[in-house]
Amino acid sequence: MDKYETIAWRQDGPVGVITLNVPDKLNALSLEMQSELHACVDGIQALSDLRVLIITGAGSAFCAGGDLQGFLERSEAHHEKGGARELFINHLSRKFMSIEIPVIAAINGPAVGGGFTLSLTCDLRLAAEGARFGAVFARVGLSPEYGSSFLLSRIVGLTKANELVLTARIFDAREAKEIGLVNEVVPEDGLMERAMEMARQIASLPPLAVRMAKRTLRHGLESTFSQALDYEEMVETHCFSSLDHQEAVKAFLEKREPRFRGY
């Protein structure tokens, strides 16, 4: 993996950790950070021994959203030039949603705007007790992005999503847990330990089955019941055919630890 300026990467056995690493700017999603996240995810996809990914923030924040100074500069430059502006494209959400292995967001502090919606693309979310959240797009004259118009209502329900987006209010980790936005709230000094514990638990399972389970659940978000059944049948047939399925059953019957190969 490459060296980065705005993020940090490390791998601990089957678990990888991306840290948003511009703490003096509350890990705002600058264009440079977005570019480095793209490159890092591309590198991750090529790591055959990686089973789970954790994303977290350095310092006191998870991610304070978009780079407001950059927003202003691009807006002023556009109005000076005139004409139609280039189409805004949600590259980052597409990139994160393409990750085949499970992704855990370890939300160590404020996650607002783009940082809030980046966390929605993750499969699991753990929050430190002091974390804060906000779908604050309207505060800066913008609307939901990074797939939040699709994901947020499916996570917390349409009525609650309407409230969070239309009021643009900040809410705490306790409320995030109550509405189902996060899986757990843990003390700040135990956040990464808990994230690693959960990641290792997932990594201990058959890699193929875990990847297929994630793919099946994501497919179900956009499917009819009949389409979901069809897809499950295809994926389950694939899993039944795998050597990892055979090894899992043998290990259980022989009362030993399994040795998975990922296929």
Show the helix and strand layout.
Layout (H helix, E strand, L loop, with lengths): L6 E6 L2 E6 L10 H15 L6 E6 L10 H14 L9 H7 L5 E5 L3 E2 L1 H7 L3 E5 L3 E3 L13 H9 L1 H10 L2 E3 H6 L5 E3 L4 H13 L3 H14 L4 H16 L2 H11 L10
Parallel strand pairs: 2-3, 3-4, 4-6, 5-7, 6-9
Antiparallel strand pairs: 1-2, 7-8
Helix pairs in contact: 1-3, 5-6, 9-10
Keywords:
46% helix; three-stranded mixed sheet; Lyase 2-enoyl-coa Hydratase, Chain  A, domain 2; 263 residues; 9 strands; alpha/beta; 11 helices; 2 domains; single chain
Put the structure in a nutshell.
With 263 residues, the protein is of the alpha/beta class.
Task: Examine the secondary-structure arrangement and name the CATH architecture of the largest domain.
Answer: Alpha-Beta Complex
Using only C-alpha atoms, the radius of gyration works out to 20 Å
Sheet with most strands: strand arrangement: 1-2-3-4-6-9
What composes the largest sheet?
6 strands, mixed
The CATH superfamily label of the largest domain reads: 2-enoyl-CoA Hydratase, Chain A, domain 1
The sequence of SSEs as H and E is: EEHEHHEEHEEHHEHEHHHH
Spans of at least 5 consecutive residues with low confidence: none
